[in-house]
Amino acid sequence: MKIVIFEPHPDDLLFGPGPMILNWIKEKENEIHIITVTDGRACYRSGENSYSEDVSRMTEDDVAEVRINEAKQAVKYLGILEKNHHLFNFHDADGQKYVNKGISKAIPLLKEADRIVLPSNNNRHEDHQATHDIAIGAAKELELRDIEYFVYFIPSYGKFQEDSKKNQFEYNIDENDANILQEWLEIYQSQAKIKWTWKMYKRFLKKVRTWTYGIYTYDEIDKYYNF
């Protein structure tokens, strides 16, 4: 099965479809592709006082380089082929400016896909919404009717609505997978420079054992809040 996963920022791979990726890797026969849409350069733009001291010396190009390298490390950690990691390198926080370009870049990558993994529609984060729009726009251009659309939500950006309850399911992870997710988190040391965020991430992965996802069809595009 060819699975194409859209990651809005470096690290969303973990907090969106992370547990399911571990499961798909275990199945071995899957051909997994990762599309990292933005470069993560806006990570420290809000100017939080809780950043580590070295952040003030970093340009946004420096930040982008660090975060893209982390995305590459995560793919390597998961054992996904380097050639199957596709970097769009769009500027973080400017996602909507790149939707049309993103659709053009995604189209050849989605050919022969069996499953597209993408963020929810109606997402409170601009880049996550842009990533959804890119994935769906490319799918419409190709008229990918006979594939599965696997939708995830980063919890802090919203939640699944009741209108598509039949499409949703809960996925439970065991302690082994929880430990792998926590080890995976350590790759994203750029996030460790934001002290309150790092504490939240570590606490989340330590406590949460049930993740919610949605599965939709081509004919259901634009019919639900989340899809």
Describe this structure as you would to a colleague.
The chain has a single domain (2-219), classed as LmbE-like (Rossmann fold, 3-Layer(aba) Sandwich). The chain has eight helices and seven strands; from the N terminus they run βααβαβαβαββαααβ. It is 39% helix and 19% strand. Helix 6 packs antiparallel against helix 8 (195-207). Strands 3-2-1-4-5-7-6 form a seven-stranded mixed β-sheet, sandwiched between helices. With 227 residues, the chain is of the alpha/beta class.
CATH class: Alpha Beta
**How much of the residues is beta strand, in percent?**
15-25%
Number of H/I helices: 8
Q: What is the CATH topology assignment?
A: Rossmann fold
Helix % is 25-40%
Q: Give the termini distance in whole angstroms.
A: 22 Å
Strand order, sheet with most strands:
3-2-1-4-5-7-6
For the biggest sheet, the summary is: 7 strands, mixed
Number of domains: 1
Radius of gyration from CA coordinates: 17 Å
Q: What is the tally of beta strands?
A: 7
Mean pLDDT: 95
* SSE sequence, one letter per element: EHHEHEHEHEEHHHE
CATH architecture: 3-Layer(aba) Sandwich
Structural class: alpha/beta
